[in-house]
Amino acid sequence: IKPKRSLRSKNNSINRSNSNDLTNKAASKAFVASTPSRDRWWTSIYPPNSEFDINMSGKLVVLEKILFECKKIGDKLLIFSQSLFSLDLIEQYLRYVTLIRKDKWEKNIDYFRMDGSTDIRTRQENVTTFNDHDNLRARLFLISTRAGGIGINLIGANRCIIFDASVRKEQ
User: Fold this and answer.
1) CA atoms of 108 and 58, how far apart (whole Å)
2) For 87-116, b where at least 16 C-beta lie within 10 A, e where not — what string?
3) Which three-class secondary structure string do you get for the chain?
4) Angle CA(119)–CA(124)–CA(125) in degrees, nearest 5?
5) How many C-beta atoms surround the C-beta of residue 136 within 10 A?
6) CA–CA separation, 78 vs 99, rounded Å?
7) What Cα–Cα distance (Å) separates residue 32 from each residue in 72, 120, 169?
8) Among 135, 142, 140, 154, which Cα is nearest to 118's?
9) Gap between the Cα atoms of 144 and 158, Å rounded
10) What's the order of all strands across the beta sheet hosting 140-144?
11) pLDDT tens over the chain, length 171 residues
């Protein structure tokens, strides 16, 4: 019996094989090239080539684990945030995961987003699609807490996350 290899290295980052690193770097460059520079406001803050390293954010590490587990067991998830930047970051992460891991996250099929710019008709269509028990692909709903509205009834979800940069466990 071979011992299990640890997924974490000494510095607590996830190990990847060289071929995966090359694939990730190439995909990162392709993704960055396809993302308008105005949507990459954080590039001046992070070191080069770390734009999509989720280990830079403990909240994204936990979110990734929750998303994976929800997909595995068939749960549907709501993520609430006051910050549109947080919702944008999660969406960009989902597009990146789609590109890197071939784990499909198509907007309005696998995940939905509701914020102040979402019109009433689209809201209702997305809610109906998400709540459909037989639709296993509809598994995530990103919602701005400032979206407002009466009668948003997301009964299809069985998990909920409040995701904000300012929320800490001490608060």
Assistant:
1) 27
2) bbbbbbbbbbbbbbeeeebeeeebbbbbbe
3) CCCCCCCECCCCCECCCHHHHHHHHHHHHHHHHHCCHHHCHHHHCCCCCCCCCHHHCHHHHHHHHHHHHHHHHCCCEEEEECCHHHHHHHHHHHHHHHHHHCCCCCECCCEEEECCCCCHHHHHHHHHHHHCCCCCCCCEEEEECCCCCCCCCCCCCCEEEECCCCCCCCC
4) 100
5) 11
6) 23
7) 29, 32, 32
8) 142
9) 18
10) 111-114, 140-144, 77-81, 159-162
11) 444 444 444 444 444 444 444 445 555 555 555 555 556 666 677 666 666 666 667 788 888 899 999 989 999 999 999 989 889 989 988 988 888 777 789 999 999 999 989 998 999 999 999 999 999 999 999 999 887 666 688 999 999 999 886 655 555
Residue showing tokens 């830079």: 56
